[in-house]
Amino acid sequence: MIEQSASPKNLFQRINAVQKAVDYVQKNKSVDTGKGSYRAVTHDEVTGIIRKHLVEQGIVCVPSLVSSSVVLPPPDKEGNISKMIRYEATYDFCFVNIDDPKDDVTVRMEGHAMDNQDKAPGKAISYAKKYAVLKLFEIETGEDEESRHADKGEFPLEVHILNLEQATTIPALQEAYLAAKKAAMEWTDPASFKVISKKTADLKAILEDKK
C-alpha cells in the first residue's frame, strides 16, 4: 500500500505550531520614565526568538505602511519649535504561508515614537511589528501595558527640557518652566519636576550672565 504524504499545513496550523514552540519572551531592557524604570521586551529580542520558528513553519511577514503623520509640539512664546517630534503611523503586517501565498492573515497595528532626529519612523515600525508578533502568536512577556499606561503613560521629560533650552529670554524660560511644572504635577512625577527645576535654574543663570 502506498502511503500518501501529509497535506501541507495551512497558515493557521503553522501559527499554532509557532505558538506551541514559543510561549514566553524574557524582558531584557530597562526603560527610564523619569519617575522610575520598568523592564521591557525589545523588537530585536522578539525577532531573535521567533525568527527560526517562522522559518521552520514557512511563514513570512510582509509589512506595509497604511498611514503616517508627524505631530510637532506647539511653538514657544518666541515662535521657536522644539526639534522633538512625535511620529504616528499605522501598518499592516501580512503573515503569509510560503507554500500558498494566497493563504495569509493581516494584523493592523499602530506605532508611535518620539525623536529629535530621523529615527522616529524606524522606532515606530519596530514597536508596531513587535506587538503584531506578540499578539498574533499569543506570546507572554510579563509586561502589564494596561496598568503602565493607566496613569497617562510616560512623562515626556525630553520634550519639556528641549522647550526650556529653546527659551531665549527669562520670561520665555519662565513660561516654559510653568508649562513643564504643570505637566509634571498632572503626571504626579516629582522626579521629573526636580530635573525640570534644576535645568531651569541653570538656564536662568546663563541668560542673566548674557545681560
What structural keywords apply?
alpha+beta, 2 domains, 3-stranded antiparallel beta sheet, two-stranded antiparallel sheet, 5 strands, 44% helix
Provide a short characterization of the protein structure.
With 211 residues, the protein is an alpha+beta fold. It has 7 helices and 5 strands. Strands 3-4-5 form a 3-stranded antiparallel sheet. Strands 1-2 form a two-stranded antiparallel sheet.
What would your notes on this structure say?
There is one protein chain. By secondary structure, the protein is of the alpha+beta class. The chain has 2 domains: 144 residues, 2-Layer Sandwich (Enolase-like, domain 1); 57 residues. The chain contains 7 helices and 5 strands; from the N terminus they run αββαβββααααα. The chain has a 3-stranded antiparallel beta sheet. Helix 2 crosses helix 3, helix 5 runs antiparallel to helix 6 and helix 5 runs parallel beside helix 7. The longest helix is centred in the last third of the chain and has 20 residues. The termini are far apart.
How do the strands and helices of this protein lay out in sequence?
Elements: H1 11-21, E1 29-32, E2 37-40, H2 43-57, E3 59-71, E4 85-97, E5 100-115, H3 120-136, H4 145-148, H5 157-165, H6 170-186, H7 190-209
Antiparallel strand pairs: 1-2, 3-4, 4-5
Helix pairs in contact: 1-2, 2-3, 5-6, 5-7, 6-7
How many domains would you count in the coordinates?
2
Please count the beta strands (DSSP E, at least 2 residues each): 5
From the N-terminal CA to the C-terminal CA, the straight-line distance is 98 Å
| Number of discrete helical segments | 7
Strand content: 15-25%
- CATH hierarchy, class of the largest domain: Alpha Beta
Helix content: 40-55%
Rounded radius of gyration (Å):
23 Å
Largest sheet: 3 strands, antiparallel
- Integer average pLDDT: 81
Q: Would you tell me the structural class of the helices and strands?
A: alpha+beta
Low-confidence stretches: 29-38, 146-152
**CATH fold naming of the largest domain:** Enolase-like, domain 1
Order of helices and strands: HEEHEEEHHHHH
Apparent shape: elongated
CATH architecture of the largest domain: 2-Layer Sandwich
Strand order of the largest sheet: 3-4-5
